[in-house]
Write the structure tokens for this entry.
Amino acid sequence: MGILNATPDSFYGDSRVNSLEAALGKAEQMINEGASIIDIGGYSSRPGAAEVSEKEEIQRTTGLISKIKSAHPETLISIDTFRSKVAQEAINSGADLINDISGGQLDPEIFETAAQNKCPYILMHMRGTPATMMEMCHYNHLIKDIILYFSKQVNKAQKAGIMDIIIDPGFGFSKTLDQNYELLEQLDLLDVIGLPILVGVSRKSMIYKALNTSPEESLNGTTALNMVALQKGAKILRVHDVKAASEAITLHQKLGTNHEDAKT
């Protein structure tokens, strides 16, 4: 999954696009490098990001979705939003999936939107809102609490009629630096939920703060953690740098092939 931000304030500058032409070029590059999903967002979820109206979020994303879908009909497009109205307008414009950082907590009607449109839904773990999430990092038991959250929200989504659900443990959301690594180390425990796992660690602060660098210098760290995520069972990598992630996936699959050969 390649990240395409139609926002002026996302934390990683190279992921931002400020014109339709630039966005189309970026999307085409990611597709050529191996992306099968393009994730388009019009609302930055980084701590301290500016509030964006529904109208502006729709204006930022729908035209872009329509153009990319027209140029690359075989590529899946996800709309990165927690708002049901934005999700519906994005689907009307050609989006195939909903990627909701709030897991249905900020706008419960988004479950109905996904169900009515028979749209796969990515359900992420987060506490609070993007503005308050980093004040809500206390857990009785990190992994157990996250599994309990998913069991509740997945049940709600399924009762609403959503057939295809992907879970995202939400690296960097409502978690300290150390909690992010505890979560990654125990990611395979989320297999108990029985749903595909998406991992998004690309160039996040859990990397550049640990290495005392910056988002711009965090590709190597991203690739290292993406390989760990694959080994722990991740099925989708959400990334800024598709070529590097595609190479990690290819090498991980090669490891699996050799393992099968050895067993045979």
Summary: The first helix runs from residue 20 to 32. The chain has one domain: 2-263.
